Amino acid sequence: MSKQDCETLFLKENLLLIAERLKISQAEALVQQAKLWPNPSLSVDEINLWATNRQTGGAEVSPPIIGNWGRNQQVGAEIEQVILTAGKRKKLIALEQVGVNQATVYFEELLRNLKTEFRSLLSELHYIQSIESSYLEQLESIKALTNSYKLQVNQGNISKGEFVRLKALELQLTSDLNELKEDKNSVQKELKSLMRLKFNQVLVLTDNVNVNKDITSLKASDLIEKAYTNRHDLKLAGLEKEYYSKLYAYERSQRVPDLSLKVNYDRNGNTMLDFVGFGFEMDLPFFNRNQGNIKHAHTGMEIAKLENEYTQLSVENEVVAAYQDLILANDFKNSIEEDYETTLDDLLKHYVSNFKSRNISMVEFIDFLDAYLDNKKILLEAQKNVNQKLEELNYAVGIEVLE
């Protein structure tokens, strides 16, 4: 797959992102719940299933309700509706809406973290694929030389010591290649989990993931300004302040008791046959005026303010550090001559040819091959570091700094 195809699949199939997106709907459901009024309550009581002559004195106290049923029976019913006072419902809706905003930012923050991890893993996989290709090429070349030397040893043309030295080099390259494959397996494992690939699938990058953009155009001051707007942890810190502000308003409204309005009906319960009455009920706030919860919310506001200031300082320092690291990595990459890798490859061919012709010694050939592989690693790591440092800067700023 290409890098773009990998990212598309990652954004579509990542299970953690799907789960976090559902949490937004979960928070929206709480807003929907907060908008609902309390249900009215109905109570029916004081029902007597029969009335004896002793109870009524043998007289008809009340007429039947239906047909001949319900004569001299008593029943009471009441409907009660709670009325939320002091704007409690509106304040609760505003409080839960902050939860929706937080869930949205949590999703964006998770995406920022996973995307950074994902792209770093892609860079690592590209690096491993590249260095593995170089090692395989050299291993095949050394194997061919080893087989040739083995024939020469059997014919008595060269010493067995030279063959053993060459065989040791082959084993060392094989061991190094196995370590690379283990690293690749580890990277594959992480990428397949992030992309929701099956265990029996193998990911191979088909294009170059290296950065080829003008990094020198970036300025630390501009990046800090962008971070103020786009860093999700700054947004979360601001939402934390807003949450406690809304919570403080809601808890203060709880000092005012709610009002319950009542309508009741009573048959045969007093001097009236069918009595309809009205009333209300409310708590008297003599002892509990919600003092503790109000203080809790107010203290939360102070804590959120301090944490917001600390987060802002951390963001500034993270952006500057990531910017400086990227400049260092890019300067080192640019300090390497463009044709240096081609020169290395040409020199290797020259050394292999001279070694086969026995114009150079075994020691000279092995020393150059070690230097060649080390320099190949340095070249590939230089580009990989630029990729990773750019992703770290993207992470620190909160957006892609190079479009």
Describe, in short, the structure shown.
By secondary structure, this protein is α+β, with helices and mostly antiparallel strands.
Describe it.
- It is elongated and about 140 Å long.
- The chain contains ten helices and four strands.
- The model has no long low-confidence stretch (mean pLDDT 90).
- Helix 4 (88-154) packs antiparallel against helix 10 and helix 7 packs antiparallel against helix 8 (291-335).
- The protein has helices spanning 3-13, 15-34, 53-56, 88-154, 160-195, 220-230, 232-253, 291-335, 340-356, 362-397; strands spanning 41-45, 75-83, 259-267, 274-281.
Give the biggest sheet: 4 strands, antiparallel
User: What is the average of the pLDDT values?
Assistant: 90
**Annotation, overall tally of beta strands:** 4
Radius of gyration: 39 Å
Which percent bin holds the helix content?
A: 55-70%
| Proportion of residues in β-strands | 5-15%
Order of helices and strands: HHEHEHHHHEEHHH
The structure class reads: alpha+beta
Low-confidence stretches: none
Shape: elongated
- The neighbouring-strand order within the major sheet is 1-2-3-4
Give the distance, in angstroms, between the N- and C-terminal Cα atoms. Answer: 22 Å
How many separate helices?
10
